[in-house]
Fold each of these.
Amino acid sequence: MLRRLLSIALIFMVMAVPSKAQDKSLMEAYQTDMVDLFAKVRQSDDESVRLAAADEAAAMLEEAMQQEKSFNWNWKFGDGVSVLTAPDRQFKIVTWPVVRDNGEYRCYGLMQSYNSKTETYDVYRLVDKSDEIMNAEESVLPPEQWYGVVYQELVVTTDAKNNGYYTLIGWSGIDNLVQRKVIEPLTFRPGSSKPQFGAPMFRKEKNLRRIVFEYSRNAMVNVHYDQQRYKVTENRKEKVNGRQVLVQDSHDQLAQMIIFDEIATMIPGMEGLTQYYVPTGTEKAYLFVDGKWELHDEAQGRASETKLNKEFAPLPKKAPAYRMKNRTANDTDKGSAEGGNSESEE
């Protein structure tokens, strides 16, 4: 409490100095307090302390984001907090997890998005309602009904008319048995800065608004935007013995894609119980084609430029970013939060 009072006093003190120095001092004051709060979120052995620190950090970040020119500040929160900024400066999104004593995750988030009418940035609190959302893959969700995940990648794509599209890739620990990764298009309501999570951007999968992977807590599943190879099959007509016949040609092609592991149950008869789902060894990909994500069944991620069906070093599996230390006695996942994505000050 004393620390908070001292920070409030500092915020009032900097109001007396010139504007540029004032902006920096104010943001530094906010950041100092929030770094301490995020350390409690990651390190405290008391669940009530972790949750209270997360709530206080969310309220403070919301207050900080409402300050003039705060969008220009690049937050440095360290491991455990993701900060993603759109290259066109349309929005900035900050997300982080809190783990409860029973291993369940709750995610927190704040978003600043540009309002073209007021020429300012509006602030939206993201409220994790993932436990209450039915048919998550088919739902378009507002900030107050957010399918809580920690966003690890922001993918920006354009169509032939140079229209821009945003897609987020995120992760959540869920509980002691299951974890989740999500591919989620992000749009904004027409004429508004208010974000909408999920969109019909998956070709030939008209009911999908996001892709959700749920799998074993002990498995490692890649979902990553990268330049990789996929197999292309083309039909062509060829004259054989005076007749036109249809011939298929296959070749591999290099492209940017969201490449991911196919997952399935490792125990026959356990279909639908996602705690038993693991990678099958097959990789698939979504390629962005004419404003839509198009599924390709044959992709092969590799750490080198080797072509398909040649010897290669596969993409390494990575431990889930932003996983927090569990406090349950039977949990085998030790260590602190990992995978921070903070930015440096401009």
Amino acid sequence: MDVLFVIPPSVYLGLLLATFICFTFHAVMGRRENSGFFYWPFGVAGFAGGALAAGAIGATYMAIGGLPILGGFVGCLVGLLVAHLVLT
């Protein structure tokens, strides 16, 4: 149980935001009932990659607690568009 306190809160916030973006994307662009679970790993990986890339280049315009939200959002959308192209 103590392991959950070691993980920074920004990781939980990133997972929450990526999940929200993924299932919103699925509601708008999804074509199958179960494609929401297909989009989720791509969205989370894209959010993490975008946040890491934005942090590395110093583009922390909309940062909440060290988590660059704008970079993560853009990375998540790129990952979701790649998943959408794979699915169709």
Amino acid sequence: MVVNDNEAARELVKRHVGNRPEKPRHAQEIRARYEQDIRQYQELSRAKVENREQRLMLYAEIKVLGWCLGRIEQNVLRDIQTPVK
């Protein structure tokens, strides 16, 4: 009976791993996306058109990516406000 439970659990894990749409990102990918989103957020902030929803979505994503990188919130806010070269 224990063997069947272990086999069933292994099969369940195997199916889950095989059907995942995305795999976890590497730290380099997260960092690149973080920096890209900051540049895009700053460009939208300088634009003359109304883009509040886009900026809010980017702002939320930047904060989550910063959290994934282990950055504290004050540093994330500083990164957002500091012009990118």
Amino acid sequence: MDGKAKSGERIAKAIARSGACSRRQAEAWIAAGRVRVNGEPLDTPAHLVGPGDRIEIDGQPLAPRERTRLWLYHKPAGLLTTNRDPQGRPTLFERLPDHLPRVLTIGRLDMNSEGLLLLTNDGGLARVLELPSTGWLRRYRVRAHGSVPAGALEALKDGIAVDGVLYGPVEAQLDREQGANSWLTVAIREGKNREVRQVLAAVGLTVNRLIRVSYGPFQLGDLAAGEVREIRGRTLRQQLGERLTTQAGADFESPLRQPAKPATKTGKAGPGRGGKRAAKPAPGRLSPAAASRLSTRKAGSGAPRGRRAK
């Protein structure tokens, strides 16, 4: 590639905004030599691209950017937040409705956790909403085995270090005791790996049920387990505000691309809105519909997959 200065945005950022993957994963693809710009292989994620540049991944053109969208998903317990699992355990991408385009998860919920998970087609938005600096509160209903020690929850407001990991301020309130268990409401802003479980374990509580009930301004509400609901564009723009919209580079002007709904043998719409669910894939493999929705925020080596046809 030539060294001429040019305006535009970084290639990894452009790939993430298309919904193909996260920015981190795009950088991994570039390092692996899988990305070309105008026919030339790329070796740096710092390369700038503009509207006239042709971007290819594994020889396939990058899909044009779609309007920024966001969905609320009620993740049931027992699903992994990943696009595939070598052990054949079920993943949420196998259970999402077929009418969704390719989406990324905003943050994660571990396999045994349930509740609100945000999905988006915009890698830039996913990255911004995961940042602790964004300041969005994540609230959970927690059932834990054990009694709450006096003053222990109040002390969490100053943060706590557990096994060398420093966790920021935690808002925790005891709601009620039920037999050997305690029900609490817990709120955090960082969302580190297994943060709620680790913090409560440090005060003598063993979490046996964890339900995320809100993420920033978005609420789980009456969303049924496994259900997906899209946030209207105008509402999303209002909730993000000017600062986050600009920081994420959210696009509310581009057109929507509606994928075709796959037909079943009866001619009805596929699973997700009343159609029959496809046969369960073999352990460790995704159905074509699940695979087309791509990935979580973790970097991976799986080949990118194109969006479904219009």
